[in-house]
Backbone:
């Protein structure tokens, strides 16, 4: 039985993977654009998730802890067929408001230096 | 449960992103074709370049410094007179319902596998698969009984990363150097 944190973690990892797919596609297109005399002056098509809202229904099947008594585990039901058999008052929902952060601030200054150094070496 | 209809949640999210990237790519290709056809005159010997710039000439009468009337001609590139169609998606909103499951899926759908793409990400103990459900029109009161997950995504162009921006600057330098090397005969 999956726990709520497993489900949320899986959704977030899949969203990250989706962005990776889109970024890889943009990178492939960027390579093709660079070789084209006119397209090299065009902006490379790229799309990212600015905001995402997920509203998930679930029912807690059982609660427990991880063993050390500190972390509470919630084994949950998420399949619709199974949720339909659960009394309405036992159905909960979680709303996730997700936004993509651009984690490039730390690499910004050093990243430029690294690129410059590599260019000089070649 | 028909597992064939369930696909990895990441692919459901990636699908609209890829569609928009592909759409913009097609739009850009159409624009380059427009520029080539409207802006240049290509002959058989111009296989590797755009050919000759298509220009428009205007003749008019103007008064010169001596106060005499004289005919003058102005030649301008045609491309500078017409709007060039370049379409970009600034913002998109996607909304759909999902039935979610953690059951393993029997067959991987065609296309890029999430497992392959996300190989650099930490492995997960639970995989989520979704089946897209259409949202009912108008009322939202009955939505929750028909699906157990609702997803709303706002999509837009991403900022160019600092590293990529640096590479583009290098491209500019290369273009300038090529121009300098090809001196007119």
Residues:
């Amino acid at each position: 039985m999956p726990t709520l944190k497993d489900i949320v973690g899986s959704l977030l990892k899949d969203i990250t993977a989706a962005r990776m797919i889109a970024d890889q596609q943009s990178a492939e297109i960027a390579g093709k654009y660079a070789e084209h005399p006119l397209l090299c002056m065009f902006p490379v098509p790229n799309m990212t998730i600015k905001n995402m809202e997920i509203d998930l229904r679930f029912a807690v099947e059982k609660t427990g802890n991880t063993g050390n008594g500190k972390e509470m585990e919630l084994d949950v039901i998420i399949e619709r067929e199974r949720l339909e058999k659960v009394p309405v008052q036992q159905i909960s929902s979680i709303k996730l408001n997700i936004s993509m952060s651009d984690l490039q601030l730390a690499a910004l200054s050093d990243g430029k230096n690294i690129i410059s150094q590599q260019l000089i070496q070649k | 449960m028909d597992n064939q209809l369930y696909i990895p949640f990441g692919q459901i999210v990636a699908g609209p992103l890829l569609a928009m990237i592909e759409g913009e790519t097609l739009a850009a290709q159409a624009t380059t074709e427009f520029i080539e056809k409207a802006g240049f005159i290509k002959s058989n010997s111009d296989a590797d370049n755009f050919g000759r710039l298509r220009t428009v000439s205007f003749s008019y009468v103007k008064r010169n410094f001596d106060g005499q009337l004289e005919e003058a001609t102005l030649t301008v590139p045609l491309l500078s007179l017409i709007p060039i169609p370049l379409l970009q998606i600034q913002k998109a909103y996607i909304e759909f319902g999902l039935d979610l499951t953690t059951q393993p899926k029997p067959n991987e759908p065609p296309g890029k596998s999430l497992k392959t793409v996300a190989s650099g990400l930490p492995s997960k103990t639970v995989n989520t698969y979704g089946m897209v459900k259409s949202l009912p029109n108008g009322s939202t009161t009955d939505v929750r009984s028909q699906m157990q997950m609702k997803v709303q995504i706002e999509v837009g162009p991403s900022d160019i990363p600092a590293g990529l921006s640096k590479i583009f600057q290098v491209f500019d330098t290369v273009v300038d150097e090529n121009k300098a090397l090809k001196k007119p005969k």
Notes: Residues 33 and 40 of chain A are 5 Å apart (CA to CA). The helical segments of chain A are 4-35, 80-83, 105-121. The longest strand of chain A covers residues 48-65.
